Amino acid sequence: MTLTAIILIDVDPPLTDSVYNHLKDQPHVKEVSSVYGIHDIFLLIDVPDEESLNDFVFTILRPTEGVKETLTLMVTRTLRKN
């Protein structure tokens, strides 16, 4: 089973493009978007389990230069409409 998470990221504004470009090529990343509002980047990831989610957040995401804060939301169910 795959665990899906939405991660909202606050970034130091001059480094938004750098953080975006770093994340787009990371394993497990399904979608990365620059957004307006309280948060700067929306990230959608699929990982095999919670340990992989922790590894992603604490070894790949948080150490990235420019990342100030993150909010991780574990998805419980999804309905996609076209």
Note down, in words, how this protein is organized.
- The mean pLDDT is 96.
- It contains two helices and four strands.
- With 82 residues, the chain is an alpha+beta fold.
- A four-stranded antiparallel β-sheet has the order 2-3-1-4.
- It has helices spanning 16-24, 50-61, and strands at residues 3-11, 29-34, 41-47, 67-74.
- It has a single domain (3-74), classed as Alpha-Beta Plaits, CATH 3.30.70.
Indicate the mean pLDDT: 96
Overall spatial form: globular
Number of helices: 2
Q: Radius of gyration from the CA trace?
A: 12 Å
Strand runs, count: 4
The share of residues in helices is 25-40%
Largest sheet: 4 strands, antiparallel
Largest sheet: spatial strand order = 2-3-1-4
Structural class: alpha+beta
The low-confidence runs, each spanning 5 or more residues with pLDDT under 50, are none
Briefly say what this structure is.
The chain is an alpha+beta fold and 82 residues long. 26% of the residues lie in helices and 37% in strands.
Task: For the structure shown, list the relevant keywords.
26% helix, alpha+beta, globular, 82 residues, Alpha-Beta Plaits
